């Protein structure tokens, strides 16, 4: 039999690409806004639709691996992901890019559960610590490396290459997967729950659409008699119906088997995973826009600023894999959450329109340290008691929790950012208007308020000014408007970063319920674990 580590590196290559694309778009947002003639809401959807398309099908794609074999499903997803990456790089409008990113997210959804499912089959419980640590390190490092690599590509070859670079990676990963991964086949036929799938997909779609687009539609009518409030209520009700069906249905196998939640550690690990997904996704949007729009950094400069965060995350992830057996997964996870919350708080405290960007480096490095200490022990805790016949379902649930957190983090932080701009920019405008002649003040404030209360980009390079000004006065007004925007956007960014901090504190609460033994040999005493259960089926 091939070495399990050969297959492991193939899985890591696939997972790295999936996680990289969850954040690589963020650094290119300002450039894409201009090149695609799009507004901020549309470009936020470029990122959120990938997260949404990657999230909604995870429960069913995890079960597809149990039904058709994890290798077959992973290869299908890899092909779809690579094709969608080429389409994304060739897109000429925001709408086309959103469609391509949807397909890319669906491909990622096919692959993601299979990567973790393979690990639990390739390695017995007593040898699973190192590969799980590697898998967790890949998740953290790829997420943080996204903005760094994205900045390099945007600066030198164009934003299109943040997608086109996936083509060679995807082709190489496909060849390795076909050769190195064993083609395990299920020993029993599974039935699926189409109604449950529809309820889950429709509920998540409605909820995220309502949260993210509330400001865009002024919390009012979307189409016909339907308002944002109606859509949000419908989303909640559909998700409640989905949960009820999963708990009560007996005629078909539910997407989320009740058996996976017998171990309370798995439940707490999923709650913590959702909190981390929310915080990581939610912190990038305001940070990148603040660095590039307010501090005037290029895509490359802002990505280089994030490099210390990626490096400390990689180091902490490797260290946590070696330490959790000694000091406990729970302690590392709580410490990681707390460190990340403190780091984001430091960034909020430091942020100002005229700050030297280099002063942010210690806070960013501290954030990477916190992230690195969470992923490996958290994944270990979630998979410690996973039986072979539920690996696909449990992997789907675990990855769904992170992705749901990420989707809601992107949407909610984007909402708070838009609301913050709508309030903070007009407030700054009223203060700056005192510097203008009286006859221009009202129009100045009104035009800035109108720009700030839409989802379109408030472009500080071409700010709205009264139309009848002579050139000298207009130049002064433009400089004033730039100051207004920088002050107002900084306030909005700081406010939006408070949301991830709050969710990280909830993650600490969830992590207190994670209790697993600190010796690898003791893992077999966990529910469902035995040496016979964890031996992989024949290839």
Give a topology summary:
Blueprint: H1 4-20, H2 29-35, H3 40-55, H4 58-68, H5 70-90, H6 94-122, H7 129-156, H8 161-164, H9 166-180, H10 194-213, E1 221-223, E2 226-227, H11 228-248, H12 264-294, H13 299-327, H14 329-350, H15 361-383, H16 391-432, H17 438-452, H18 471-511, H19 531-534
Antiparallel strand pairs: 1-2
Describe this entry's structure for a reader.
The protein has 539 residues and is an all-alpha fold. It has two domains: 4-181 and 253-421 and 489-522, Growth Hormone, Chain: A (Up-down Bundle); 193-252. The chain has helices at residues 4-20, 29-35, 40-55, 58-68, 70-90, 94-122, 129-156, 161-164, 166-180, 194-213, 228-248, 264-294, 299-327, 329-350, 361-383, 391-432, 438-452, 471-511, 531-534; strands at 221-223, 226-227. The protein has a two-stranded antiparallel ribbon. Helix 5 runs antiparallel to helix 6 (94-122), helix 13 packs antiparallel against helix 14 (329-350) and helix 14 (329-350) runs antiparallel to helix 18. The protein is globular, with a radius of gyration of 24 Å. InterPro entries: EmrB-like, MFS, MFS_dom, MFS_trans_sf. Pfam families: MFS_1.
Fraction in helix: over 70%
Can you give the mean pLDDT? 78
Approximate shape: globular
Q: Biggest sheet, in brief?
A: 2 strands, antiparallel
Radius of gyration: 24 Å
Number of helices: 19
